[in-house]
Amino acid sequence: MTVQIPPEVTPFERPVEQVAFHRTELSQILSVYGRMVAAGEWRDYGISCLRDVAVFSVFRRTAEIPLYRIEKRPKLRNKQGMYSVIGANGQILRRGHDLGAVLRVLERKLIRAID
């Protein structure tokens, strides 16, 4: 008879790595989101923190596909920039190293001519 000892599980094990938005990044995103909600353009959002990417999705209505996705992919930090804004059809609208500069593509949607 063989006895198998279960692997030791310590209370200090690190959980599975996840990518998440930092507080300063979320404040920039929520600032743009708040202005768009006040203008009546957006109504709901969702945040997903996955192993490779963190996604902030923006919805016009709750039951739709997202209008825009703001993604953070740290693996692209040294290449094209880890922040990107992706449209509803999957087209990358802007990508870069600075979140504020990337979010400006969404602020242009807020500016309209007044008759």
Q: What is the spatial order of strands in the main beta sheet?
A: 1-2-3-4-5
Number of domains: 1
User: How many E-type strands?
Assistant: 5
Distance between the termini: 87 Å
Global geometry: elongated
Strand percentage lies at 15-25%
Roughly how much helix do the residues carry, as a percent range?
Answer: 10-25%
Average pLDDT value? 82
Give the uncertain stretches in residue-range form: none
Protein name: DUF2794 domain-containing protein
Organism: Sulfitobacter alexandrii
Structure report:
InterPro entries: DUF2794. This is DUF2794 domain-containing protein. The chain has helices at residues 23-38, 99-107, and strands at residues 44-49, 54-59, 68-72, 83-87, 92-96. It is α+β, with helices and mostly antiparallel strands. It has one domain (23-107). The mean pLDDT is 82.
